[in-house]
Design goal:
By secondary structure, this protein is of the alpha+beta class. The chain has 6 helices and 9 strands. It has one domain: Methylpurine-DNA glycosylase (MPG) (3-methyladenine DNA Glycosylase, Chain A). It binds a DNA duplex through strand 4, strand 5 and helix 5.
Length: 197
DNA sequence: GGAGCGATGTCCT
DNA sequence: GGACATCGCTCCG
């Protein structure tokens, strides 16, 4: 049975939410279709206590969403060409968030391939294995999705729990950062072929 | 299959 | 002006 993940789920600290998001479904409503991926990799960013987090330098116009209430999308633009999707967690005023790094494609694979500019039948790992890739596959941009409520089905982007057992979780260091790189805040489903790198 | 590197916008010092 | 929570292409084995 599929259930919408409620706002209370995101009240916990980011390292808890990141781990518990594994195995859940990210659902994007797009052109009348459902684009669905199972979350297989996520990283925690721990607000103003975490030198690697966007929130570390304090609240700005860009990162305001992560200082707001839990369960909202923080989408930012990086390296001049990629978007990354985070979900805010912890109560309003606390700046934790979780970066979604990889999905296992479940539904709408043909549309994902088109959005990624890939021929049908290409390696499925190219669809959504990586934070920039999954945003492109699901047509998620800052303009369309930053600040939207992922606990509302009407947002066109939400998280579902289909009660499938997630399996064992592998913990490692976060990818692509320089500051606080030694902290074990990356969580992935062990052995899943859609985990990035 | 792995290391090296260029692309390219936005934010912050 | 530099850094950046990335990706895909080249070149080399």
């Amino acid at each position: 049975m599929k259930a919408l993940v409620p706002r209370a789920f995101y009240l916990d600290p980011p390292e808890v939410v990141a781990r518990e998001l594994l195995g859940k479904l990210l659902v994007r409503r797009y052109e009348g279709k459902r684009l669905v991926g199972r979350i297989v990799e996520a990283e925690a960013y721990c607000g103003i206590d975490d030198p690697a987090a966007h929130a570390y330098a304090g609240k700005t116009e860009r990162n305001a969403v992560i200082f707001g209430p839990p369960g909202f999308a923080y989408v930012y633009f990086i390296y001049g060409m990629h978007y990354c999707l985070n979900i805010s967690c912890e109560p309003k005023g606390h700046a934790g968030c979780v970066l979604l790094r990889a999905l296992e494609p479940v539904e709408g694979l043909d549309v994902m391939a088109r959005n990624r500019g890939l021929a049908p039948g290409s390696d499925l790992r190219l669809l959504t294995s990586g934070p920039g890739r999954l945003c492109q596959a699901l047509a998620i941009t800052r303009l369309t999705h930053n600040g939207i409520d992922v606990t509302s089905v009407r947002s066109g982007l939400h998280v579902e729990d289909d009660s499938r057992a997630a399996g064992s979780v592998e913990v490692s260091r976060r990818v692509g950062i320089r500051k606080a790189a030694d902290r074990p805040l990356r969580f992935a489903l062990a052995g899943n072929r859609f985990v990035s790198r």
